[in-house]
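Take just one protein record:
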Amino acid sequence: MKLYALLLMQDAAANDGGFTNMLVQRFNEGNEGGFMWPVLICLVIGLAIAFERIISLNRSDINSRKFMSSVKEALETGGISQAEEVCANTRGPVASVVQSGLLRYDEGMDAVEKAVVAYGSIEMSFLERGLVWLSLFISLAPMFGFLGTVWGMILAFDAIEQAGDISPSLVANGIKVALITTVAGLIVAIILQVFYNYAVSKIDRIVAEMEEASVELIDALVMMNMGRPVRNAGSSDQG
């Protein structure tokens, strides 16, 4: 069994090495016009931005229902100051928006509403930071690939012109360059598009949670001013 497992590991390593060597070979073949490097740069920088955004968004994501329950409980037991402390000890834009409203409570409900709207816009801009660059690389990668396609066709026609004849061997190299760069650009765009859509969906959900938490906060403060139970405000405790 140990020998069999060792052979499997060696075979997997050989396959990995073969795949890597194939990628390097295709890269060199398609890079005759130098257009594979821009495609690779788009992939590397795009993945760096995507990973940073995904990690940041995952850290910003909290259980908003549980958080709002804690805030309303703090409002009932300790008032505004205790609710602010709950927000201060919770990470993420939802807690920041709620805290911005609590900090303006002394100025009236109009100030609370303006604060949550303004701070919500600021937090949304932070969430979307970097996505415009990711979108740029999604667009640039296939463009560089298509440039490589055009360059490959130019090489093919140059070979035909120099030989004065048409044969598969003459145009094969140029067509290969054209196809490799096209495939590389499209693959990079597809990979980055998946990460982009994931980040956008995550942002949309966090923004919806911020809006819901803002409405619940205002309802809770209104009910607190009326002397009614704060926990009945909103819908975070339902379902």
Summary: Residues 168-225 form the longest helix (58 residues). DSSP finds seven helices and no strands in the chain. The chain has one domain: 37-231. The CA atoms of residues 87 and 95 lie 5 Å apart.
